[in-house]
Amino acid sequence: MLYWLSAWVCGSGKTLNEIISLQQVTYTYPGTSTPAIKNISLAIPAGQFCAIVGGNGAGKSTLAYTIAGFVPHFYHGTLQGEVSVAGIKTSSTPIHDLVSLVGLVFQNPFNQISGTKFTVREEIAFGMENLGIPRDEMAARCEAMMALVDINELAERFPLGLSGGQMQRVVIASILAMQPQILVLDEPTSQLDPIGSREVLAAIRQLSSQHQMTVLIIEHKLEWLAAYADRIIALAEGTIIADGSPSDVLSDETVWERGVGLTRYTLAARQARAEGRWPAGLKLPVTLEEAIESFQAAR
Amino acid sequence: MSEALSLYVARPSRVHQLHPLTKLALAGFMLVGGLLLPGPWGLYIFWALVTLPLAFLGRILNQLVIATLRVAFPFALSVFLIQGFLWTGGTPLFRVGPLSLKQEGLAFAIASTGRILMVVSSFLWFALTTRPDQLMATLSQRGFPAGLSYMIVATLQIVPRFQARANAILDAQRSRGLETEGNLRRRLKALLPLVIPLVLSSLIDVEERALAIETRGFNRPGQKTNLIVIPEAPWEPAARIGILICAVLVVGLGLWLR
User: Does B19 fall in a domain?
Assistant: First the structure.
């Protein structure tokens, strides 16, 4: 196991400072007239744990598909601007070459199970089989990934017979097993209960910091993001409306109103402010620690 | 495995340990051998001497016989009644009112029932003892197009999900007051609100599934590997050739005896 872990680290060892780069990207789905994302420029350094937030129809999933190369390769439509990952232009690289670079986990786990495998272990190996990874290494990665997302006891189960949350773990493990340098997750915890969500998010966070894996995650659990994300990008109507540290973005009033929402800590502080019990100039908290601190200061 | 839609029955048997291709060869041998043997009873002798012992070895004799009879019985009954009594000319054996049972019709019915028996039991013998994923892995290793084997295996797997969705749509529309019971006209009227969401949601699913296998590099050109090892005894490739030779001999024998 150590063998492949080290291989992974060495594989992504060439530290490109900007592993994801978008320059004035506008994309319109076929058959629609308004672009789903408009004029987006973005640079994400390697190893960053970056979250995308926004309301329905803000363009979050489209942005995720664009970075993974499924826009324009899978969805076609018109893409303007330039997207590159790890120095490679996605528009001129076929999707089957991009998948070993960028892993994509999308919302509905039911449809991401291949349907050709009869055990969870084989399902996790499906991607690696397509990449032509040798059997011994596949077996080692399968065990490591199942341990990571805590599904060892499901190894021999039939994948399509699992619960939504279990499937979500299987899907994440199967993408991680392909060892992408960049992991793009579109609401990976939608089917998980609160404890399961925290476990899975913590595992991804841990992988990201241990192996310098760049993570781009679309997630609604703002309290978790406030505590663990390096950076938050807020989208509305296809454009970036805020981009920065969680405490800056999530405490920004103009962001709340545009479909992003706010953490329960910010909500409490806002209430205190509305009642005139919040000192002027004191920043609204976004995490539990900040809340304790600033509420004590506000007293 | 039990949740999977497949006929496979896991048993610790010598037959189960055989390589899928060896089993495919054996099933093929049973099929051609059974179909080409002459006379109304040749098939049954072959069935009793080859298929049943093989099923016994695979410890699936009960399942095989029950499933085969279930498929073959309705066919056998109709063929006996129609061919036995409505055979034109021929030697009557006995009379029932205006109809008489003809010897030639009876022989024809016995032979055609035997054929159905043979086709069904060869297929079932293979399906009951072979894991579908092993079959798929074997086929892809032998250069069978991956897309085609994906289509076969995945389609079978998705059937239960499709049924579950159909039921969910039925419940959802009923809870909104759609009447799905009653006379034919009412039922026909209820069909459209059930079929449209089913078809549309399935089409959306197809797109997502295509996306899903792309994310796993399914269309990547080049050599694929397999996690599972498909056990193959060293003598099996030679045995397969032997089986094929036997099949050719049986075909020859069948044609010669005809």
Answer: yes
